[in-house]
Automatic annotation (TrEMBL):
HAMAP family: FolE. It holds the Pfam family GTP_cyclohydroI. The keyword Zinc applies. This is GTP cyclohydrolase 1. Pathway: Cofactor biosynthesis; 7,8-dihydroneopterin triphosphate biosynthesis; 7,8-dihydroneopterin triphosphate from GTP: step 1/1. Homopolymer. Residues 21-198 form the GTP cyclohydrolase I domain. Zn(2+) binds at residues 91, 94, 162. The keyword Nucleotide-binding applies.
Length: 201
């Protein structure tokens, strides 16, 4: 997970809210509009506030998100799958939206996670500037390191607005990425079972 930024260093201090708002005004001018006109007067403040929500993942400690695990599982050791976790992210190349669903499974080894924790892990990494490939790997690695199960499987399907709104302008195209660790990586039958369970609506 070498692409994960955990915090800004002293050499790169975080800009102030006022500096962020001024940057938005500059972009509005560059786009050809007047940031002083009535409809845009509050836009810099709104954008700064929206960014603090959209990119909240930078301020979240993934270890705290994973937090408590449960050992009273009655001997259960089969697949745990949470599918259709909707998310919104932004591509790191154009800062345009990426929208899709994540499907995450793991094979327990004595401990399980609260189901909402899996969705929270997806949300933490989605709320950072991302590539889909990196986000897929980050989710798998975080659960693998935090829970230490027998294996983790992650499948993400998403539409990228950088393809739909600009450049090639192809709407409706979907990008699929997968990452497997442990028993999922080593066993093609487990991979197939995971994909079958994801697709079996």
């Amino acid at each position: 997970m070498d692409a994960i930024v955990t915090k800004l260093t002293a050499e790169a201090p975080r800009p102030t809210r006022e500096e962020a708002e001024q940057a938005v005004r500059t972009l509005l001018l560059w786009a050809g509009d007047d940031p002083e006109r009535e409809g845009l007067l509050d836009t810099p403040a709104r954008v700064a506030k929206a960014y603090s929500e959209l990119f909240a993942g930078y301020g979240t400690d993934i270890d705290e998100v994973l937090g408590r695990t449960f050992e009273e599982v009655g001997g259960y050791d089969d697949m745990v799958l949470v599918r259709d976790i909707s998310f919104f992210s932004h591509c790191e190349h154009h800062i345009l939206p990426v929208m899709g669903k994540a499907h995450v499974a793991y094979l327990p080894k004595g401990r399980v996670l609260g189901l909402s924790k899996i969705a929270r892990v997806v949300d933490v990494f989605a709320r950072r500037l991302q590539t889909q490939e990196n986000m897929t790997a980050q989710i798998a690695q975080a659960i693998d390191e935090g829970l230490q199960p027998r294996g983790v499987a992650v499948f993400i399907e998403a539409e990228h607005m950088c393809m739909a709104m600009r450049g090639i302008q192809k709407t409706g195209s979907t990008t699929l990425t997968t990452t497997f660790t442990g028993a999922f990586k080593d066993n093609a039958a487990e991979q197939a079972r995971f994909m079958s369970m994801v697709r079996n609506r």
